[in-house]
Design a protein that fits this description.
Layout lengths: L27 H6 L5 E2 L5 H8 L2 E2 L1 H4 L9 E2 L3 H10 L6 H5 L22 E4 L5 E4 L2 E9 L5 E8 L6 E6 L9 E2 L1
Antiparallel strand pairs: 1-2, 3-9, 4-5, 6-7, 7-8
């Protein structure tokens, strides 16, 4: 897409690129308190969500620098800005980034970029799952200066925007990788 090469789907890795396992199977209380890298599948339902939506990772997993395969990395906030600017800006890029009704799996975008964004939801900081079927949240590798939050992007069923916000590191969000 433009000058960048992106994964066409959300990351599904169970291991870091060094072969070590990513923590999984956490109950809500453990999810909300861990500072180790961890992952989950929306609603803990791999049969329904893993193939289409991939896994949800906390930012501690992102911050290891080993989440994406060798030769790829979690994009910075600036790399997401390059992507959205190349697609006409944040006010319209969401449609180009979301899968279309003709794609399988489908969503309500045009997917003219080939990004194929899907509405995989989020694992909230208390461990509960929300917004599956409604929103796509993807981490960036950019932390805030306070060190308490990290940047992410959001696509929504309700509009064409690509939102940008900072979230608590305990959130479980999707990850896309971009080529080094």
């Amino acid at each position: 897409i433009g000058t960048q090469c992106w994964f066409k789907e959300n990351l599904r890795n169970e291991n870091y690129n060094d072969g070590s396992a990513i923590l999984t199977g956490l109950d809500n209380a453990t999810w909300s308190s861990t500072t180790d890298g961890a992952m989950a599948v929306y609603n803990d339902d791999e049969a329904v969500y893993l193939t289409n939506a991939g896994r949800l990772y906390n930012w501690y997993a992102v911050n290891t620098g080993n989440l994406c395969p060798t030769g790829w990395h979690v994009p910075t906030s600036l790399e997401y800005t390059t992507l959205t600017d190349g697609l006409g800006g944040t006010s319209v890029a969401g449609d180009a980034m979301k899968s279309s009704a003709q794609d399988s799996p489908a969503w309500n975008g045009t997917n003219s970029s080939g990004f194929s964004g899907l509405d995989g939801g989020v694992r909230y900081i208390d461990g509960t799952f929300i917004d599956g079927g409604v929103s796509c949240f993807v981490w960036s590798a950019t932390a805030t200066t306070s060190g308490l939050f990290a940047s992410y992007r959001k696509l929504s069923s309700s509009n064409s925007l690509v939102g940008s916000a900072n979230g608590q590191r305990e959130l479980g969000l999707s990850v896309r990788c971009v080529r080094d």
